[in-house]
Amino acid sequence: MNRRKFVQHTSLTAGSLLIMHNLFAKNKEKVYGYNNMLYTLDTRWSQADASKYPVNDCHEMVQDKQGRIILLTNETKNNILIYDTKGKLLDVWGHEFPGGHGLTLHNENGTEYLYITDTVKHQVYKATMDGKILLTIDAPLDANGIYKKREEFVPTETIIDSNGDIFIADGYGAQYVLQYDQQGKLKNYFGGRGDGDEHLDNAHGICFDTRIDNNMLLVTDRTRNCFKRFTKDGKLLEVIKLPGACVCRPVIQGDHLYAAVLRSPDMNKEGSGFVTILDKNNKVISNIGGSEPTYIDGVLQPMSQTDKIFVHPHDVCVDRDHNLYVAQWASGKVYPYKLKRV
């Protein structure tokens, strides 16, 4: 073999070995999930410097129209951290939300706004994307006497209707879903504590179920391990049972519903969280870090954590490429993890 052919042969062999090595390395990366909803885990996605931009509880995340990932934490050194999808920190703001909990993005005639709930200050805020407060909603002490004092109002989540109406889930308070107009005037409420299916216990999250009908609300009933579908005026339509899963807010993208499972319901099972994914028919099709969904005679069997990749996952953000970002509560002040869709 002459020198030229030898060099070509050696280059091809080295290139083939490199490709094989890369494929082998990729294949070694652990994959989580079931039924083609599969993900690899990146626990070091965030490139934020913890000494400069610390987090406490990472509560919720959204993606804006620019593609940025926005995180809410109850760390008042920087309540809002803004990233690109690769984990680079782009901006921070906010010192006013010691109980920053719920983060909702709403596009109003082409302009995006953030809605923030604060469980310590017992308030809900509408803010510009750079943090200017435009509206504050206080405890609804005029709501026919159902609230006697401001401390009974502990809002955890909001969703905004196309007409500007604001639905607030009082998930750590009196367990009502309250409907306000866009000026912050109370219009209606439903739910509240009680033993009936129409009542709520830890109404942690709320969204419009765009998979089926924009006029339907999905509300979390975390203590009872389920989501409940209501009409906008509060008529109960369906209970979606999720045994073994204390679910946080429902997140819709396309035909799928995603939710962080804070823990399994046994109070001794702290640190037992995972992420669950449902299809359009509300059938669980995948769990990330959790057991394979199993149905017997159409009934979902209790789910549980199988991989110790999360402690207390609190929210899931789904980006345009169907990757997931998971924020965690009481988990050692860790930054969000990224789950890349396989």
Structure at a glance:
By secondary structure, this protein is mainly beta. The chain is built from 1 helix and 28 strands. Strand 3 and strand 4 form a beta hairpin.
Written account of the structure:
The protein is mainly beta and 342 residues long. The protein has one domain: 6 Propeller (Neuraminidase). It is 8% helix and 41% strand. It contains 1 helix and 28 strands. It has one helix spanning 3-28, and strands at residues 32-34, 37-42, 58-63, 69-73, 80-83, 89-93, 100-108, 111-118, 123-127, 133-137, 157-160, 166-169, 176-180, 186-191, 206-208, 216-221, 226-231, 236-241, 246-247, 251-253, 256-263, 274-278, 284-288, 295-296, 299-300, 313-318, 324-328, 337-341. The strands form 7 sheets. It has a 5-stranded antiparallel β-sheet with strand order 1-2-28-27-26, with no helix packed on it. The longest helix is centred in the first third of the chain and has 26 residues, at 3-28. The protein is globular. The chain starts with a helix and ends with a strand. Mean pLDDT is 93; it is low at 3-26. It comes from Parafilimonas terrae. InterPro entries: 6-blade_b-propeller_TolB-like, NHL_repeat. This is 6-bladed beta-propeller. Keywords: Glycoprotein, Repeat, Signal.
